Amino acid sequence: xxxxxxxxxxxxxxxxxxxxxxxxxxxxxxxxxxxxxxxxxxxxxxxxxxxxxxxxxxxxxxxxxxxxxxxxxxxxxxxxxxxxxxxxxxxxxxxxxxxxxxxxxxxxxxxxxxxxxxxxxxxxxxxxxxxxxxxxxxxxxxxxxxxxxxxxxxxxxxxxxxxxxxxxxxxxxxxxxxxxxxxxxxxxxxxxxxxxxxxxxxxxxxxxxxxxxxxxxxxxxxxxxxxxxxxxxxxxxxxxxxxxxxxxxxxxxxxxxxxxxxxxxxxxxxxxxxxxxxxxxxxxxxxxxxxxxxxxxxxxxxxxxxxxxxxxxxxxxxxxxxxxxxxxxxxxxxxxxxxxxxxxxxxxxxxxxxxxxxxxxxxxxxxxxxxxxxxxxxxxxxxxxxxxxxxxxxxxxxxxxxxxxxxxxxxxxxxxxxxxxxxxxxxxxxxxxxxxxxxxxxxxxxxxxxxxxxxxxxxxxxxxxxxxxxxxxxxxxxxxxxxxxxxxxxxx
Length: 492
Ligand code: ADP
Ligand code: MG
What we know:
Oligomer: single chain
Bound molecules: adenosine-5'-diphosphate, magnesium ion
CATH topology of the domain at 92-285: Transferase(Phosphotransferase), domain 1
């Protein structure tokens, strides 16, 4: 088998995800244009590699007209390439807002295609877990383009179609089902809940559950608290509302299945039952919804790039795998209750250094690798600030009530930033070089991280001599509204 570089030529970037970068590529032997989803596997943990293998295994299984088709998987020079059919129509919602005419009938057609893809996944014992507009792509720019479900990065395999299990906390906040939010066992019904959210947006342009405060958002989801406000819902058919109600059913065992949804009159009797008048306000609403999402994504990408950008060894790819990602990883996706967080709604892509906004994608395993990198970077920055007496950075990164054990001071618990201010101004020696080595990060839930590492300091004593010290340190970081803050520091 030839390597990726022998068989394909890479072209421009098409999109980015949590861990991946997607580029157009040309298959050299026949000139066909395809899409390569590229992941740098050099720094991935074995668990993350397994997830990648899981994604490839699932995509290979799913050959369906409404699912992005995977041709082959190649591993070449530390990079994992999944070669998909190239879809050129962009995201479904981007296309909807570009339309001059959009009716409930159009929404019904879109939903039918989404349901077809979901039914096929469920029939093959696959739960997608990250159904959202960003993962609904259009095959081409032509009028008869079909919707293709993409991104099986979070998808899981069931032993039987009705299996329910705790597969970990994963998804994107606004689309999470109550059972996931409640950390209960779940199965394919979570995809149907997400379909309900998407259908709601397709009809009026805004989501059923929405709050800037993630806790309040989750409260709405747990109680299925949504409504059909006037006047925009007055013009939506009763059948559409009825379908949404049985998709957004709190009890997963009572929630409609993809198969039954495909038999719902709003889908099957579209021509006679579903209103065909133009819904300009829905288009305007979706435009605002997209703008808000893209704006947040841009802020987070910028923030992320500035603070954490890293070079990879492949000149074609700049940080394909966001150090964290958007999200990813926390703990064990199988049974950990930890997890979370990430970025913006689009998020799957970028992560949030500060508290993630509401609609980010969550994936236990990925969050954690992302978080690990963030915590290591922050620890390096803080250690450097301490070594160089950079009080502003120190104060920015430390909780005001930080506690500290420092062997130089004795066996007493020191508290508050004032102690460090004092140290900076008096006793502490300035170091010229500082190195953080062997960092080991453990996430304690989604919002607390404990990092232990060795710190090596080099200070110039005279122009001819310098001294080197080595310490064993521990820092505890907590995620707050203003980003991660160090709440405890222990140094030997
Ligand atoms: P991730 O799992 O990292 O989120 P995705 O599979 O969602 O990655 O891909 C990231 C982005 O790349 C998508 O949102 C889309 O814009 C683009 N993309 C993915 N697959 C294709 C494809 N087959 N053709 C064209 N663009 C694609
Ligand atoms: Mg994606």
